[in-house]
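Cast an eye over my tokenised protein here and flag anything odd:

===
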Amino acid sequence: MAKHGKKYLEAAKLIDSEVTYEPLEAVELVKKAATAKFDETVEAAVRLGVDSRKQDQAVRGVVVLPHGTGKTQRVLVFAKGDKVKEAEAAGADFVGDQDMINKIQQGWFEFDVCVATPDMMSEVGKLGRLLGGKGLMPNPKAGTVTFDVAKAVQEIKAGKIEYRLDKAGQIHAPIGKASFSAEQLNENLKALVEALNRAKPAAAKGVYLKNIAISSTMGPSARVNASVYR
């Protein structure tokens, strides 16, 4: 068992681990329990009733959180020609083609999300080991391989996140910061869960949304009543 400090133990008294809370109440408790000196990220953990080993039950997608994540995403766009100006006008932090590929090969990773036009993927694919290992590889399913780079950049800047089922059958995703209002966090959580519902695989049987819990970076978790979203 991991040992927790005094602050965590005090915060844990606010949340009963045996109780399942209504979404807004759970959010309010997690906010109260976030006592770190920095603005903690609030994350949702959703356990789904799918078999992560089966390809036809994979759950992966994107959702634009209505209130964003509270983090400014640095966006790199691999593009050439007119798409360079389009990406820059949309607010991309870095835009280029072979020059950016060379920088990454030399160890540069001062960005959070990669977008690429389809005609760049043959070259970007050479960065598979470097980008893939950090979860930064552009992917059509995530909307990050597209000729509509302006839309992609704007959505990322507005708070688009990618979610993906892990081996344990769970989705982990940020829903904002502890400094957000309870209403903002609650609406972001609702948007995430609704996106997961829409992504339900046809092969999934039985209860799909099994458990939902939310927690801040350094704080205890609160169980959320998943039946609200079913």
